[in-house]
Amino acid sequence: DTGVSQDPRHKITKRGQNVTFRCDPISEHNRLYWYRQTLGQGPEFLTYFQNEAQLEKSRLLSDRFSAERPKGSFSTLEIQRTEQGDSAMYLCASSHRTYNEQFFGPGTRLTVL
Amino acid sequence: TQLLEQSPQFLSIQEGENLTVYCNSSSVFSSLQWYRQEPGEGPVLLVTVVTGGEVKKLKRLTFQFGDARKDSSLHITAAQPGDTGLYLCAGVDEKLTFGTGTRLTIIP
User: Fold this and answer.
1) Per-residue pLDDT, B17
2) For B36-52, b where at least 16 C-beta lie within 10 A, e where not — what string?
3) Is B106 helix (H, G, I), strand (E, B) or coil?
4) Residue A70 neighbours by CB under 8 Å, 6+ apart
5) How far is the C-alpha of A45 from the C-alpha of B95, rounded, in Å?
6) Cα dihedral B49→B50→B53→B55 (10° resolution)
7) Do the Cβ atoms of B12 and B107 come closer than 8 Å?
8) Closest CA–CA distance from residue B71 to any residue of chain A (Å)
9) What is the pLDDT of residues A34-80, one digit of tens each?
10) Quick one: B1 exposed, middle or buried, by C-beta within 10 A (0-12, 13-18, 19+)?
11) Are B101 and A40 in contact (CB < 8 Å)?
């Protein structure tokens, strides 16, 4: 296992389309996090899971956004009816419950035209 | 709303110079972390500071945590081009709350 992986790395879509991103965490990590990073800013927390349970959601996560981690392994983040303001880098991170260190994936860069 | 402000936002210096980056929080977190992020990649953890007044050194990087555990600094000695990147501080609780970032460029 070489780290957190995300797919796709880049996604270009038209406004109004739905998109789905996937994150595969480090295998022994039970916590998985999603962050969003816009150009020139630090990442902002969206949501996190412990195993398959979604424990916290940011108010940034509007009802157009949904995240799942059905078997406590990989996770998906879906954005419905995309808007230009959704253009950002979407970062996934994983950690072990008892440690503070989060390991980040390379991100999925979304561009909404 | 970002709770952690970093300064400066941008910094461009010559190779061999020293620099300091600052992080100021409006809240106290259980600990504070510093990350470096390169283009097209996710942030990578550099250090975690927990105790007020703590100083940690990582080769040419020195991290300080303020006594009140609300401010922190990162000092780089004899900067090298490989130090170029986006430096982020982050408050740690159940999640990370990142600062606004400092984009550092070291000119050879």
Assistant:
1) 97
2) bbeeeebbebbbbbeee
3) strand
4) A52
5) 7
6) -30
7) yes
8) 17
9) 999 998 889 999 999 999 999 999 988 889 999 999 988 999 999 99
10) exposed
11) yes
Q: What letter would DSSP give residue B96? A: E
Min Cα–Cα distance to chain A from B37, Å? 10
A90 in reach of chain B (CB within 8 A):
no
| Chain B residue with the nearest C-alpha to that of A95 | B95
Distance CA A30, CA A53 (A): 10
Q: How does pLDDT run across B22-60, given as a tens digit for each residue?
A: 999 998 988 999 999 998 899 999 999 999 999 999 999
- Compute the half-sphere exposure of residue B38: CA atoms within 13 Å on the CB side of its CA: 6
CB contact under 8 A, A107 and B94: no
Burial A94-103 (b: 16+ CB within 10 A, else e): bbeeeeeebb
Q: Look at the block and give the residue holding tokens 């990370």.
A: B96
Q: What is the DSSP string of B71-82?
A: EEEEEESS--GG
What is the 3 state secondary structure string of chain A?
A: CCCCEEECCEEEECCCCCEEEEEECCCCCCEEEEEEECCCCCCEEEEEEECCEEEEECCCCCCCEEEECCCCCCEEEEECCCCHHHCEEEEEEEECCCCCCCEECCCEEEEEC
What is the number of other CB atoms lying within 10 angstroms of the CB of residue B88?
Answer: 27
CA gap A72, A50 in Å, rounded? 8
Residue B58 to chain A, least CA–CA distance (Å): 17
